[in-house]
Design goal:
The chain has 13 helices and ten strands. The protein is an alpha/beta fold and 349 residues long.
């Protein structure tokens, strides 16, 4: 799309700010110890699981007439499958006419669980595969996690009822493995593979193995560009994490647009209302479902997400690509720093 026309489209999306994607951090319990976790979850969760009725009460503040047909609730965590009521959660969402999906590490996801989740109305699922066996298990901190993830992918990849994808966090250890991972995933019948890089937060902040150099980042862009040009039944795409300059629309179907707070919101484990769960919750939370109406917060707050002028500081202040980038993805602004953590555009020059 022409950049000028795309900016007009983006501005209209911000003006309308239709909520169509709602994350629910339904647990902070997790059976993994991932090197790159931004939440630092664990089996001994910091907070108790949010009761289902509390979340449903928040969702019920959204008028039915303002819920688009594609409105979807995405269960995240932690590991959602650790909730004993996960199937009840899905069925209650479907009773309200809501689509729902889940982000899982795949450990508890097998053929039997797949059938149960589909019976509960699940329409979307995302599982991570972060390398070949040794690399994935190293990154996830659990021996055998690769085989469990691959088993989960095989359980759902060919199900035509699902909007399913696999995500890979690209780092120094698995960058060279991407061609072989492509072959492994293609063999499962998967239709979409999404790659992303790490923002230096959480456990990854001081882990040099997690962060790509500029040259490695360009190598990743070239890999994705090549696979997209080759085509095939499995779509390969880069995430929406930042503006990519010369690689815009070559590594993903649309130009960079951070939809956080524009079309995407989240209810966090303690009730806070934010956008994507990986965004700095202390800095950007907009309210709390235990004191505020989720719908009123969505309608009347979220200004930092809809007007990025505050982000025109540091390296962004004089950038000629500001109108296309707007400071990159909102998850790239963490802590008290007045500067963006990473500039993807600068890596591609």
């Amino acid at each position: 799309m022409n950049p000028f026309l795309f900016r007009l489209f983006r501005d209209n999306e911000v003006k309308v700010h239709e909520l169509n994607y709602l994350f629910w951090e339904c647990t902070t319990r997790c059976n993994f110890h991932c090197r790159h976790c931004g939440s630092d979850c664990g089996m001994a969760a910091r907070e108790k699981d949010m009761p289902l009725e509390d979340f449903l009460s928040a969702v019920d503040t959204i008028p039915v007439k303002h819920r688009p047909k594609e409105f979807c609730v995405v269960l995240t965590g932690g590991e959602p499958l650790l909730r004993p009521d996960i199937l009840t959660v899905g069925k209650e969402l479907r009773k309200r006419g809501l689509l729902w999906g889940m982000v899982s590490n795949g450990w508890l996801y097998n053929d039997e669980m797949h059938l149960k989740l589909m019976d509960a109305g699940m329409g979307a699922v995302t599982v991570s595969l972060d390398g070949l066996e040794a690399s994935h298990d190293w990154m996830r901190g659990i021996p055998g996690s690769y085989q469990r993830a691959l088993g989960a992918i095989n359980a759902f990849a060919r199900d035509p009822r699902l909007n399913a994808d696999v995500v890979t966090c690209v780092n120094k250890r698995n960058l060279s493995e991407l061609p072989e991972i492509h072959k492994v995933l293609s063999a499962t019948g998967l239709k979409q593979w999404r790659l992303f890089t790490i923002i230096p937060i959480g456990r990854a902040a001081h882990d040099p193995d997690m962060l790509l150099s500029n040259e490695e980042f360009v190598q990743l862009m070239e890999f994705i560009r090549e696979k997209r040009e080759q085509g095939g039944p499995m779509r390969v795409t880069f995430s929406c994490e930042g503006y990519l300059g010369r690689y815009e629309e070559k590594v993903r179907p649309v130009r960079h647009f951070c939809h956080a707070g524009v079309n995407i919101a989240s209810v966090l484990i303690d009730g806070r209302i934010c956008a994507c769960p990986n965004i700095d919750r202390d800095r950007f939370s907009q309210g709390n479902i235990y004191q505020d109406s989720l719908w009123e917060v969505w309608q009347n707050r979220f200004q930092p997400f809809r007007d990025h002028s505050w982000a025109r500081t540091g390296i962004c202040a004089g950038c000629k690509q500001w109108k296309n980038c707007l400071g990159g993805g909102m998850h790239n602004w963490h802590g008290t720093s007045a500067d963006v953590l990473q500039c993807h555009y600068g890596k591609t020059l």
